[in-house]
Specification:
This protein has 13 helices and twelve strands. With about 400 residues, the protein is of the alpha+beta class. Strands 1, 2, 3, 4, 5, 8, 9, 10, 11 and 12 form a ten-stranded mixed beta sheet that branches. The protein has a two-stranded antiparallel sheet with strand order 6-7. A hairpin with a 3-residue loop joins β11 and β12. The longest helix has 20 residues. The radius of gyration is 20 Å and the shape is globular.
Length: about 400
């Protein structure tokens, strides 16, 4: 029988806009802040941490050479703490959480940190593909892949449009959802909903190389002056489509993490659990439509967990594009009032490899604030993948 795995701490930085307040932070240093904060919040001896599993998508430049180990060496954790980096595209740190939970549930480890980091300012999206290609070192799509998928270029943008078309979603529907994301994020920020989950860091204001030090403790991408009329006026990404920049996730810098422990560690180190990891699911799906995978993944997870959609109190479905959560709602029949209650990546940003444990951090704190029990998180991932995590708040 599997051991129980508990989350005892969960934190994140506030999201930084491209070229914004976090522009001067090396990603290893930013991730190190989260690692140190997890230790501070639990008051655990960092020497007992048996692994750090860190999601990161663009593992090139400042995020290359095992960014997880780099973050450990930039933190206050001792050199004895190992670390490894994970790339499951946008679900990288949700997969890091799955790996951490599986290590604990297998009985092989007692204390593991799952985390993620991405500086989309300093390591732009696509750099791990474009840079080698520019230097003549090829592209990811192999000859055999090309034979299997002739004349197809895998694209998240086309996938988002394909999801919208398949589920009959209109631009007006997606614009309304995008506006709602900002309104919920504004209400959450102004109401202090993120106060307990965000670790403040020092950033810089302005956009120039020089800037004044400023406390970065709120998500920088929220548009407080947004209006539905303005969102409806944003140009389509492609003619005849339904997606615009206003209904897409924002480029974002950030780091996040959770600490996962066994029941033995709870007792030995006097830790208080925030949540128990109840179920883990992962699926592969059509890599062309790509972003539809959270829908069948959710159905599989609920079936394997012996639960129904109505058993879940809150959902976090990553807002890579508005078509993803709107299609998910339409197919699953979930209560819209339970989904992304504090806004999502359209308003708060999507720091790629950091988004998985970022969403889990928000989900756990939102469950606590509402005195609710069950939470489900899922996200679409490049290659037609999706993770699903179900937690029980304690």
């Amino acid at each position: 029988m599997a051991e129980a795995a508990y989350i005892v701490a969960a934190t994140r930085t506030a999201g930084g806009r491209k070229g914004g307040r976090l522009r001067d932070w090396h990603p290893a240093d930013l991730a190190a802040v989260v690692l140190d904060e997890l230790v501070t919040r639990t008051d655990i001896d960092p020497a007992v941490i048996e692994d750090v599993v860190m999601g990161c998508v663009m593992q090139v430049g400042e995020q290359s050479t095992n960014i997880a180990r780099g973050a450990v060496l930039a933190s206050k954790l001792p050199e004895s703490v190992p670390a490894t980096s994970v790339d499951r595209q946008c679900g990288s740190s949700q997969q890091a959480l799955h790996f951490a939970a599986q290590a604990v549930m297998s009985g092989t480890m007692d204390v593991v940190i799952a985390s993620g980091v991405e500086s989309m300012t300093r390591v732009p999206m696509g750099l791990s593909v474009s840079l080698p290609a520019k230097e003549g070192f090829g592209v990811p799509m192999s000859p055999n892949q090309q034979k299997r998928y002739p004349n197809i270029q895998f694209s998240q943008f086309m996938g988002a449009e394909m999801v919208a078309a398949k589920y009959g979603l209109t631009k007006d529907q997606l614009d309304e959802y995008g506006y709602q994301s900002h309104q919920r994020a504004i209400a959450a920020t102004q109401g202090g909903a993120f106060k307990d989950e965000i670790i403040a860091v020092t950033g810089k204001d302005g956009k120039e190389a020089e800037g004044n030090p400023v406390v970065h403790d709120s998500d920088e991408g929220i548009r407080y002056d947004s209006s539905l009329e303005a969102m409806r006026g944003v140009k389509l990404l492609r003619e005849g489509g339904a997606i615009t920049a206003a209904t897409s996730s924002q480029i974002c810098d950030g780091a996040s993490g959770v600490m996962v422990v066994s029941e033995k560690a709870l007792k030995e180190y006097g830790l208080t659990p925030l949540a128990r990891i109840h179920h883990l699911t992962l699926i592969g799906h059509d890599p062309v439509i790509m972003l539809e995978a959270p829908i069948p993944a959710t159905h599989r997870a609920l079936k394997k967990a012996g639960m129904s959609i109505d058993d879940i109190d809150l959902f976090e479905v990553n807002e890579a594009f508005a078509s993803v959560p709107v299609a998910w709602l339409q197919d699953t029949g979930a209560d819209p009032s339970k989904l992304n209650v504090n806004g999502g990546a359209i308003a708060l940003g999507h720091p790629l490899g950091a988004s998985g444990t970022k969403l889990m951090t928000t989900l756990i704190h939102a469950l606590k604030a509402r005195n609710k029990k069950w939470g489900l998180q899922t996200m679409c991932e490049g290659g037609g993948l999706a993770n699903v995590t179900i937690v029980e708040r304690l």
